[in-house]
Specification:
The protein has a single domain, classed as Alpha Horseshoe (Serine Threonine Protein Phosphatase 5, Tetratricopeptide repeat). The chain has 19 helices and 14 strands. The longest helix has 25 residues. The chain is mainly alpha-helical.
Length: 541
C-alpha cells in the first residue's frame, strides 16, 4: 500500500528508451516514447514482450481491484479515500466516472494497463508474422497470449473499449465486450497452438527477477485464462445461459492442474520485483492492510464484509446490526461454522477507521489474516498469485451445473477445498511464514450429491469464490462470478464505462453504470438473486 503504479506505460517508455533498434529513432508521442520493433535484435525484441507482459500482469493485480471487491461485498469500508465509501454504500450508488474526480484511476487505470499491453503485443504480432526470424516466431505465442488476456480483461471489466494501433493516440476501433472476449479467445487459441509446436521452449521475457516460463506451462495458463474469460463474459444470469459452457469446461480441464493439462503444474505465480519496474502484488497489498494497532489489536483497512460470514454461518446477519457497537467497540459475536476456513479471518472488536456517522450497517468484526503480510506485500519472498488449479475446478463444476449435469458438478466440488482437498500453492503465504495461520489452505467440510437446487449450488460456489479464491486470482473474480448469477446487490454496477477522459477525446456523451434507481437496466444489477436473500430463497424451496 505504500507504493502505487499509476501509469504503467510510463515504465514501458523507460524500457524502450534503452532498446533503440538499428537506425530507427525514438518517435515522440506526447508524454509517451517508444522505439519501433522493426529491425530490433533478439534481446531488444524481448524487451517489447517484457513491457507488454508487465502491463498485463500489473493490471491483473492492480490495487484498483479493491473497488471491484467492494462492489462484490468482499470488503467493506466507510473510508472516502479512493471513493471506497461510495462503492460500499447501501443502497448502491452509480460509479463516479469523471476526469475531475480525485480517484478517477478507479476506472482509468485498468483501461490503461490492458490497452497498453494490447497495443505492444499487437504491434509485435504484426511484425513477427512478416519476419522469418526463428526467435520472433518462437515469441509470437507469448505475444498472442498477452494480447488475448489483455483483450479478455478489457471485455470482462468494461462495456466497450477503443483499441488503438501501437503508434496512435487517437481514434481506434470501438469494440463491445462480447467482441473483445471473442477476439481474446481467438488469440488464446492461437497462442496455445503455437506453444504446442515447441512445448520445451523457454520464455524469459518476464519483468524483474522472474524465472522463465515454458511453452508447456503457458499452454496450461492460457487454457485457464480462456476458461475464466469466457465464463466471465455474462453480466446477468440470463446472459450466462448463452455461454458455451462445454467450451468453458474443455478449457478448464486443460488448465492448471486439470486432468488434460500439459504439465500438471497447479499454480501460476510470479515473484515480486521492487528493483525493476516496481512489479508487486498491489491488489493483495491494498486489500489486506491493518490499521489502529497491531495484528492482535488492530482493524482491517478494508475489513471483510459480513457476506463472508453469512456464507460460512447461516445465522450470521447480512448487515452489521446498529446496536452491536458500544463505546466505540464492536460487539457482534464471532461466527461459528463447520467450515474450517473461518480460520482465514481474524476477529476484532476494534472498529478502526470505520465511521459511525456514515453507516454503522457497513461495519465488520473481521479482517482477512490468510492474505495478511504484516502490512508489507512488497517483500521479495512474497508471491504474486495469478491463477490456481482450485479456480479451474470451480469453473469445471460451474460449467457442468450450467449444462444441467448436477451430479458431475457435485463430484467436482467434492474433490475441491469445498470438501476436503486443500489448495496447494507450492510455497508458503506470508501469514504462514509469520505464524498468523497454520496452513496455506484449509477445507470447507461441505459435501454434495447432485440433488441440490440451482440456488444451493450458487451459494456453494459463491462461498468458494468468496472464501477460497480471495487473493488467489487477482482482481474481479467475485464480481465476475456474482454478476453472472444475479447475486450482486440491487443497483450494483456490473461493468465499468469507458473512462470519461476517453469519452471526451472521442466526443462521446458521458455515461456510467450503477445506482439503485437504475436497477435492472443495462450495466446495473437488478438484485433479483441478491446474495442477501439467497439463503431465504433456499429455505423457502
Amino acid at each position: 500500500m505504500k507504493k502505487t503504479v499509476f501509469v504503467s506505460f510510463l515504465i514501458l517508455g523507460l524500457w524502450t528508451l534503452f532498446i533503440s533498434c538499428g537506425s530507427n529513432s525514438i518517435s515522440d508521442q506526447g508524454d509517451e516514447e517508444y522505439v519501433p520493433i522493426e529491425g530490433c535484435e533478439d534481446t531488444q525484441c524481448l524487451n517489447f514482450i517484457k513491457g507488454a507482459f508487465y502491463d498485463m500482469a500489473t493490471g491483473i493485480v492492480s490495487s484498483t481491484g479493491v473497488s471491484m471487491g467492494l462492489l462484490a461485498d468482499q470488503y467493506t469500508s466507510t473510508n472516502i479515500h479512493r471513493n471506497y465509501y461510495d462503492l460500499a454504500r447501501e443502497p448502491r450508488e452509480a460509479l463516479t466516472n469523471s476526469t475531475t474526480d480525485e480517484f478517477k484511476l478507479n476506472i482509468e487505470e485498468l483501461y490503461q494497463h490492458f490497452s497498453e499491453a494490447y497495443k505492444t503485443a499487437d504491434h509485435f504480432t504484426e511484425y513477427a508474422r512478416s519476419d522469418d526470424s526463428t526467435f520472433l516466431m518462437q515469441s509470437l505465442g507469448m505475444a498472442y497470449f498477452i494480447r488475448g488476456v489483455s483483450q479478455g480483461y478489457l471485455g470482462l471489466i468494461y462495456d466497450k473499449v477503443y483499441l488503438r494501433e501501437f503508434d496512435s493516440v487517437e481514434g481506434g476501433q470501438l469494440l463491445e465486450y462480447s467482441e473483445l472476449i471473442e477476439s481474446s479467445l481467438s488469440d488464446l487459441d492461437k497462442a496455445i497452438s503455437l506453444f504446442e509446436e515447441d512445448p520445451d521452449f523457454e520464455h524469459s521475457n518476464l519483468p524483474g527477477n522472474n524465472n522463465s516460463l515454458s511453452n508447456g506451462y503457458l499452454m496450461d495458463i492460457a487454457n485457464s485464462f480462456a476458461a475464466r474469460i469466457l465464463a466471465g463474459e455474462a453480466r446477468t444470469y440470463g446472459e450466462a445461459q448463452n455461454i458455451d459452457w462445454n467450451r468453458v469446461f474443455n478449457y478448464a480441464i486443460k488448465g492448471l492442474g486439470g486432468a488434460e493439462s500439459f504439465t500438471g503444474i497447479k499454480v501460476f505465480s510470479l515473484n515480486n520485483s521492487v528493483t525493476e519496474g516496481q512489479f508487486a502484488n498491489y491488489f493483495a497489498d491494498w486489500s489486506n492492510f491493518i490499521v489502529e494497532g497491531d495484528f492482535e489489536t488492530g482493524s482491517g483497512y478494508t475489513p471483510t464484509d459480513v457476506k463472508i460470514f453469512h456464507l460460512l454461518d447461516s445465522s450470521y446477519p447480512t448487515i452489521y446490526p446498529e446496536n452491536e457497537i458500544r463505546n466505540d467497540t464492536l460487539t457482534l459475536t464471532r461466527a461459528t461454522s463447520i467450515d474450517s476456513r473461518l480460520e482465514y479471518y481474524k476477529y476484532t472488536t476494534n472498529k478502526g477507521i470505520l465511521n459511525e456517522e456514515r453507516d454503522v450497517n457497513l461495519f465488520s468484526t473481521y479482517f482477512n489474516k490468510r492474505m495478511f503480510s504484516e502490512n508489507d506485500w512488497w517483500l521479495p519472498e512474497n508471491k504474486i498469485i495469478i491463477f490456481t488449479d482450485t479456480e479451474t475446478k470451480y469453473l469445471m463444476a460451474e460449467a457442468k451445473l450450467m449444462m444441467g449435469e448436477n451430479t458431475t458438478a457435485a463430484n467436482i466440488l467434492n474433490q475441491s477445498p469445498a470438501k476436503n482437498t486443500r489448495t496447494d500453492l507450492g510455497f508458503d503465504l506470508p501469514a504462514v511464514r509469520n505464524q498468523r495461520i497454520q496452513s496455506n489452505g484449509l477445507t470447507g467440510n461441505h459435501s454434495y450429491d447432485g440433488s441440490e437446487s440451482i440456488a444451493e449450488f450458487q451459494l456453494a460456489l459463491l462461498r468458494e469464490y468468496s472464501v477460497e479464491l480471495e487473493g488467489l486470482g487477482g482482481v474481479g473474480l467475485q464480481w465476475f462470478f456474482m454478476r453472472r448469477h444475479d447475486l450482486l446487490q440491487e443497483g450494483t454496477a456490473t461493468m465499468y464505462p469507458i473512462p470519461e477522459s476517453e469519452l471526451l477525446e472521442q466526443g462521446m456523451p458521458h455515461y456510467t453504470f450503477g445506482g439503485v434507481e437504475n436497477a435492472g437496466q443495462n450495466g446495473t444489477a437488478s438484485g433479483a438473486n441478491s446474495w442477501k436473500n439467497l439463503r431465504a430463497k433456499i429455505d423457502g424451496q
